[in-house]
From TrEMBL:
<keyword id="KW-0503">Monooxygenase</keyword>
<dbReference type="GO" id="GO:0071949">
    <property type="term" value="F:FAD binding"/>
</dbReference>
<feature type="domain" description="FAD-binding">
    <location>
        <begin position="2"/>
        <end position="343"/>
    </location>
</feature>
<dbReference type="InterPro" id="IPR050641">
    <property type="entry name" value="RIFMO-like"/>
</dbReference>
<keyword id="KW-0274">FAD</keyword>
<dbReference type="InterPro" id="IPR036188">
    <property type="entry name" value="FAD/NAD-bd_sf"/>
</dbReference>
<dbReference type="InterPro" id="IPR002938">
    <property type="entry name" value="FAD-bd"/>
</dbReference>
<dbReference type="GO" id="GO:0016709">
    <property type="term" value="F:oxidoreductase activity, acting on paired donors, with incorporation or reduction of molecular oxygen, NAD(P)H as one donor, and incorporation of one atom of oxygen"/>
</dbReference>
<keyword id="KW-0285">Flavoprotein</keyword>
<dbReference type="Pfam" id="PF01494">
    <property type="entry name" value="FAD_binding_3"/>
</dbReference>
<keyword id="KW-0560">Oxidoreductase</keyword>
<protein>
    <submittedName>
        <fullName>4-hydroxybenzoate 3-monooxygenase</fullName>
    </submittedName>
</protein>
Amino acid sequence: MRTTVGIIGAGPAGLLLARLLHNAGIDSVVLESRDRAYVEQRQRAGILEQGTVDVLRAAGAGARMDREGLRHDGIELRFADQRHRVDFPELTGGRSVMVYAQTEVCKDLIALQLKEGGPLLFEAEALAVEDADTERPRVRFRHEGTEGVLECDYVVGCDGFWGVARKAVPASLSRVFERTYPFGWLGILADVPPSHDELVYARHDRGFALLSMRSTSVSRLYLQVPDGTDADEWDDEAVWAELDRRFETADGWRLRRGPITQKSVTPMRSFVHEPMRHGRLFLAGDAAHIVPPTGAKGLNLAVGDVVTFARALVHRKETGSAELLDAYSETCLRRVWQAERFSYDMTTLLHRAPDATPFDDRLQLARLSRIATSRAAETDLAEAYTGFPLH
Ligand code: FAD
Ligand code: DHB
């Protein structure tokens, strides 16, 4: 098989890239190791930055998002029994975010790709990227029990943190920057209308909690749990009781309960692989970088990377210049490191480390109080949360 751009992975990065290339008249083939149902149901991100919303609309993938997504103009920070609302449009000159789940973004992009785009092969596992530093990179893969080779002009590794693409960069040229955290998130989906109309990020002495949503009738909630926690250790009553404690306020706010339909634990990690390009292999999204989820940045970074790649390739096609392709890694990494910084700040602002001292607790409260009382500090959060410009 032969194509211009071989895309490994049909998460948000790979699917959006295939769509952007299709719109620009560039052919691609997407290889995805899992089946369609798995990709469409994997519960992950929920928040789209303004820039991501704009990209999806411009790509012709925004119709259902515009009908069913929920525009959010702020978040609530909850700490020391207080509630503080951060008003995004007011602080950022009109920017907001959209609550529209990653599962829905993927469903929309898959439907478009199957209807209008190039080949998208499910249960097609990439085994290795070969000859990345030549004019003819190749992807070896296994599909329906047989091995095949996809010959490409370019390969984009959109295969997430556990994928194979990153391994094709020689160790002597790679640098990894990494940090792990001694806690994770227990996430639940519950069939109950959200208890608040905006997201609530709560800092509590017992640990962090987050109230989010998937729609006006489905709540998504997260609890900080110790590293290595098994979701089965938590029965439903224990989850609700812990959420009640962590969201507690002085004004008697109540959390609504409903049947829990899903429960899982996500570990936390900060990770950046540099460079994001080796020859004609480009890494995008979680294949190149991971952020802890507290800042809601992972999916949005993946979108930024593939927009940068698509623009660079179109530029190459239109002008013959490889200048933007050559600058891909540097261009993406500027934005990536800002998101790493913000995600780290939000994580350390709101979570309680197991070895936290009273001094650490007071510092956290002082940082939160600074955001609640200084327009400059609050604006810094609002600008980062609603998203850094794509370029
Ligand atoms: P992925 O979504 O991981 O997709 C990679 C794809 O490649 C997968 O489909 C995988 O099956 C496939 N693949 C892997 N190996 C191979 C192979 N060898 N061959 C073929 N295919 C392969 N981000 C936000 O922006 N906002 C949020 O609110 C947010 N919340 C989150 C909450 C949680 C609990 C978690 C876990 C993540 C959250 N994220 C959030 C992060 C976000 O989900 C990820 O950053 C995003 O999925 C990255 O997209 P991707 O396409 O790069 O990678
Ligand atoms: C969701 C996830 C996040 O990491 C976040 O910061 C906000 C919302 C969510 O899944 O809804």
